[in-house]
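thought: fold this chain, then report.
action: predict
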Amino acid sequence: MVPSTPPAADATSVWPAVVSGAFLAAALTAAITIWLARRKSREEEISRLRTAFAEAFAAHSAYKEMPYAIRRRRFDAAAEERVRLSETLREIQGNLSYHLAWTKIESEPVGRAYADLVQELRKTAGAAMRAAWETSPTETDTGMNIPPAQIDLSALQTPETAYIAAVREHLRALKKPWWSR
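observation:
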């Protein structure tokens, strides 16, 4: 007796097997996994940028504090204080230069806002530093209180606000899904 061969499967009988519940579940799972991975990657990128933009603002803040540090320098170690404060300022200047380049590369509007901020910072805080070096070091505890009339950095408020707004807008745009950008 000749063994019987199973009938040949036609295309219409194979299709339901391929598009079975298991196949659809696997495809749906893959799609959700890919979407979640992309979302997590985007959130990590936004977090990285948030940190980097905050570090740029911290470099600005360190420079902004230098007039106060110069006024409060030790009176009994003038030479050492000049070296210490000069080295601190050199390091801050390097950080500002790094962040100027980085923000321009990351985002043109944020880079422009940061450049405007640093330009005003160097003008305003730089003048306050020059004035601080021309005064005698503080020798008393009460001299540690420096009134705004001696160091006025209020001109920095507008460019600081503009930088923060540019960063906020850049991050907000990154939060939008790729299809709506």
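thought: worth noting. The chain is about 75% helix and 0% strand.
final: tokens above.
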